[in-house]
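Quick review question:
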């Protein structure tokens, strides 16, 4: 199932999608995409759905709110607005109303691609994909969403959540800030943080001063920088703010503000989309639909007449590192099962919201087993496409 007619134009397709991205950021993104087929897969969500839209034999399914870019590294831990640490789906940039099989296929393909990069044997990989599909279907069929927090987690995820929950503020700031005189400042390292032009910096300071006045009046802004994070999202406008408490010594807060851009899936979705006030509202609302508890301070805002998503900074390291689990089959199985349960739970929570299928329709889909083998076969074959695309990309 190789889309050979597209192979000679792969760089053109990617360049067209990234048109308008500043050259220095485009170089960062392309460098990251060159690192591995999985990193390439993460950075080219649009290619996946462009190709999926050409597949007339893809299994049908109910419409659901989906993250749009579900893969192994879009699950992670975060502190919720209730102060507890959760493990859940955590990226909603591409969120859209679409067939639920789109989400499942994106996820299962990510397992094939990532495990191939890790040189995990094909038979073991197929077993993990089958486990994901069976667990997803069984949780969907049960019709009851689940959630994972430290008290009920098991295995590596439990250890992971406990470690994140015990992390001190100093550990969060380490490597991100440095002391200049009596105050802390963000480290401008050219990799994670970039210096802002003075005019933009002044606008952002005015914005965050208004935001803190209305949301956290006891904090003041110490520093602002441009933030580079992820792979697919490299190129969007993204800023990090370092705030300090006015009364409590050594009490700091880091805020992440990311431009809310249209979902790359929208032009391919066969389902009519509801109207939103902004792309920021879309992202926040779908995240509220799908997550059990949302991250602290999550909201959508407008800056310089553009929509943005704002929340408390969540370190990108708070994800499961499958390289460390490579030879620990039982722990990999447990993580895959939990990811499947969380994906199904997210779809159940979003049921019947703004055009999404009802819980009963999702339950019936979970009880039907015919689609699982079709998704597995599609993902297995499409992995070959991803590897071919990546080869052409790094060859040029």
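Suggested answer, residue by residue:
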């Amino acid at each position: 199932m190789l889309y050979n007619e597209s192979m000679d134009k792969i760089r053109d397709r990617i360049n067209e999608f990234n048109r308008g991205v500043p050259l220095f950021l485009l170089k960062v993104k392309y460098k990251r995409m060159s690192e591995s087929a999985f990193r390439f897969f993460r950075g080219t969500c649009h290619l996946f759905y462009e190709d999926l839209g050409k597949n007339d034999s893809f299994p049908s399914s109910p419409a659901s709110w989906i993250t749009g870019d579900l893969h192994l590294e879009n699950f992670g831990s975060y502190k919720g607005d209730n102060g507890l640490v959760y493990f859940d789906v955590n990226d909603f940039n591409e969120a859209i109303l679409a067939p639920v099989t789109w989400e499942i296929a994106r996820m299962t393909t990510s397992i094939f691609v990532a495990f191939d990069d890790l040189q995990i044997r094909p038979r073991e990989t197929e077993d993990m994909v089958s486990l994901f599909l069976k667990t997803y279907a069984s949780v969907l069929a049960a019709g009851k969403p689940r959630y994972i927090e430290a008290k009920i987690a098991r295995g590596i995820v439990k250890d992971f959540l406990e470690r994140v929950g015990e992390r001190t503020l100093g550990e969060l700031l380490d490597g991100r800030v440095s002391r200049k005189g009596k105050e802390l400042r963000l480290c401008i390292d050219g990799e994670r943080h970039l210096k802002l032009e003075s005019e933009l910096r002044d606008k952002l300071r005015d914005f965050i001063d208004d935001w803190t006045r209305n949301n956290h009046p006891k904090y003041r802004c110490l520093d602002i920088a441009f933030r580079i994070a992820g792979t697919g999202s490299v190129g969007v406008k993204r800023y990090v703010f370092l705030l300090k408490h006015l009364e409590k010594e050594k009490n700091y807060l880091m805020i992440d503000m990311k431009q809310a851009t249209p979902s790359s899936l929208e032009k391919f979705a066969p389902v009519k989309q509801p109207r939103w006030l902004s792309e920021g509202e879309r992202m926040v609302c779908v995240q509220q639909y799908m997550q059990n508890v949302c991250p602290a301070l999550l909201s959508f805002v407008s800056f310089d007449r553009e929509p943005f998503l704002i929340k408390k900074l969540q370190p990108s390291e708070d994800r499961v590192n499958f390289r460390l689990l490579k030879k620990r089959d039982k722990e990999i199985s447990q993580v895959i099962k939990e990811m499947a349960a969380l994906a199904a739970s997210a779809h159940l929570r979003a049921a019947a919201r703004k055009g999404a299928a009802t819980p009963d329709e999702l339950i019936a889909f979970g009880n039907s087993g015919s689609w699982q083998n079709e998704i597995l076969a599609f993902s297995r074959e499409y992995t070959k496409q991803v590897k071919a695309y990546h080869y052409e990309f790094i060859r040029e």
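Why it works: The chain is about 45% helix and 15% strand. The longest strand covers residues 219-227.
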